[in-house]
Amino acid sequence: xxxxxxxxxxxxxxxxxxxxxxxxxxxxxxxxxxxxxxxxxxxxxxxxxxxxxxxxxxxxxxxxxxxxxxxxxxxxxxxxxxxxxxxxxxxxxxxxxxxxxxxxxxxxxxxxxxxxxxxxxxxxxxxxxxxxxxxxxxxxxxxxxxxxxxxxxxxxxxxxxxxxxxxxxxxxxxxxxxxxxxxxxxxxxxxxxxxxxxxxxxxxxxxxxxxxxxxxxxxxxxxxxxxxxxxxxxxxxxxxxxxxxxxxxxxxxxxxxxxxxxxxxxxxxxxxxxxxxxxxxxxxxxxxxxxxxxxxxxxxxxxxxxxxxxxxxxxxxxxxxxxxxxxxxxxxxxxxxxxxxxxxxxxxxxxxxxxxxxxxxx
Length: 362
Ligand code: NAP
Fold this sequence. Notes:
The chain has helices spanning 14-23, 45-48, 59-62, 84-96, 119-122, 146-162, 185-188, 199-210, 255-263, 293-296, 332-344, 354-360; strands spanning 4-9, 29-35, 77-80, 100-103, 139-142, 164-173, 213-214, 221-222, 227-234, 241-249, 282-285, 305-313, 317-324. By secondary structure, it is an alpha/beta fold. α6 runs parallel beside α8.
């Protein structure tokens, strides 16, 4: 079966190498370009990357020469895991040359006509693409911040079933969330850093866009209306963001009803048979000491959000803990699932080889 040719922008980074490891064995996509900064251009990928995964570099990637981030004719889709300082213009240049850009970066997320998508929650927001003015079918779709993803996935079923008036989150975020080399060993060991630049703003705004509704004219999102407060911390854990959440619901709900809302969540991906969909997007474990990064981050191949410790909160009504893998569900895995959703929704149908189009009808 002919696969869809894709580029990986920022292929040498923390999220980029996760993309490489997923996409070189993906049934629908085939990487044709690995792109990074001038520091890496011209080198074999194995030399350019500081590979940090436990699985080896895919053989086909290891010898591939790293390219610049200029648009590549052959690729119809670009996965972006670029440093946010340079991503805005590079992602635009790919969209302007008719490519679908699926981005991990913060740069375009909050623009009114850019979909900010968690595939299980708000697939309908993809229709914003029709309001983008990129020529020749180019478009940008985005994946939320790595901490937003777990939070929004836990809040959405509660918002649908009971309404949310207010929520508060305290995050304990893994070191890999800062990219490589990230926060220095001397700063993080034996320590917790109570500040991650820009993170609290993202957690206080992105969930409201994701849980929002398409405006009547279909040109933007009417944000969900609830108060949201975030406090973010960097902790000496390699992978997996733990979040302590408190929530004030509009309608009364008991513990069983809340857990039922999580476990019975109707996902927009149900029935689509996307290769990266976990069997359960949300899992609940009632053991008092769970979830924990070391034991729960790989739930559902790193794509399941683990929730636990639902208990009364004296201030907001209910509180709970959640854990999600920052570079899988919160990064590369989430972006690949989003690209699969775009394929399943026919967003690439005009641009891919005929045999790949057949594959999309699966
Ligand atoms: P990273 O490890 O620092 O990797 C950054 C990538 O960007 C590298 O491939 C780097 O290439 C490339 N790059 C840097 N400057 C460039 C330039 N001037 N031109 C072209 N490419 C350039 O960062 P990361 O953690 O993977 O994060 C990548 C993006 O995903 C960020 O926007 C981040 O906010 C977002 N994100 C990160 C996580 C996470 O958990 N880490 C999760 C979700 C989203 P070289 O190696 O050649 O320098």
